[in-house]
Amino acid sequence: MISPQLALSLAAHLDTAEQRAAELERLTAQHSDLSAEDGYDIQRAWRALKGSRGATVVGAKAGLTSRAKQEAMGIREPIYGFIASDTLCSQSESLDLSALIHPRAEPEIAFVLGRDLRGPSVTLEMVLDATESVAPAIEVIDSRYQGFSFTLADVIADNASAARVLLGDQRTAANACDLGLVGMVFQLNGEIIDTAAGAAVLGHPANAVAWLANKLAEVEEWLPAGSIVMPGGMCGAHPLAPGDTIMASFDRLGTVTLACH
Ligand code: OOG
Ligand code: MG
Prior knowledge:
Mean pLDDT: 98
Bound molecules: 2-oxoadipic acid, magnesium ion
């Protein structure tokens, strides 16, 4: 276990890297024995730091929940992070990439909770029951580490590379269709760059939400009603450049479009 002082000082490094949009050497280069639990301690210290500046937590994210994402990042287990209020974007505004280091976009099916979800032993059915609606979403991830390269402890400390969250306008009941069978087409500047189905994420995206609720229970946290929950990218994340427009179109759930400058 690391000391609260070290957790806070490493969180402050990540915070500075994010604010300056300047990449950082991965933490494990200097602290090679950091564990996943240490990573979560650093992440919570960072969450507290952002909270002290007025940001609130509006939801949570699971990451590395699809084979595509696990293979791309070389890490074979899911992770989680928090969604800060100042990372929510709107489709009506172009995203300023100069505030980010090396942003990448990934398509996700977002869950908006109508009721608290508290583990342990949350099931897929319990997730669907507690969900007010699902929405087409794009997550912009932006590792604070050089070369977008990290170990498990590093990426956990870095709040699972969280940077921006964008939801499309449409809301659909979680039980209106089988979310595992929902197809998705990912387009960059009008060209198809990837396709996937909901089942790419742990067999069903609600499984990722259940995993997250159960994992949070280990530290006596939960997903409160009203939370936005991002279950994880359905396919690999795609780098963004100024002038790009990236769009994820989902069967039944609608479309979400992000323009960048
Ligand atoms: C880690 C964040 C993963 C997802 O949806 O899999 C993530 C990364 O790939 O940098 O958000
Ligand atoms: Mg993601």
